[in-house]
Design brief:
alpha/beta; two-stranded antiparallel ribbon; 30% helix; single chain; globular
Length: 224
Amino acid sequence: MKNIFVLFFAGLLSIPSGNGSVTEATIKLALLKYSGGGDWYNDVNSLKNLASFCNKSLGTNFSSDFATVESNSPDIFNYAIVYATGHGNMVFTDAEAANLRDYLLAGGFLILNDDYGLDPFVRPAFKKVFPELEFVELPFSHPIYHQKFNFPNGLPKIHEHDGKPARGFGLIHEGRLVCFYNTETDLGDGWDDVHNDPEDKRTKALQMGANIIQYVFTMKEEAY
């Protein structure tokens, strides 16, 4: 399938009009609505705050609002980056898994955030999407940690949860990272600031989010 990033990368840039003025192109991030009873709608301000931070730090022009898309909807193909979060169960029907797979193979990208409690359900859910793939822990040298902001030790630790180290995983299809999954840190809560995080932790969460965004729109085929 044709990589839809070609179209969406253009949407991040200022587009000159015929009279020499500049028309601002605006695109949206999207929140994934999934089945199973998990609170997919959690952290209502996460994407708004991330979009605002990226506009300031990366020069993007994301909309201040975000879209909500369902796993089996053709609307998902209108968004280059989709975000999923929650605490509980995540389930995909055959149709949802097939559509999500098609979206990711077409060049779409999924940011998957464990808001504490999602982890036991993520792996079986995505085995239905990519039966042939496993989540692979990304090394600290991976370029996703070294974009606008440098994280030499990998993901920043935002929330303690079980007190374990923050971990970043990926689904890699034919050399391309199609999904970035963070667990034991909860970047989404840092973006939303629902726990009144210290400013430095919130900033680190937003910086890591900006790195993911920048990586998605500049990434190239990588060999693993």
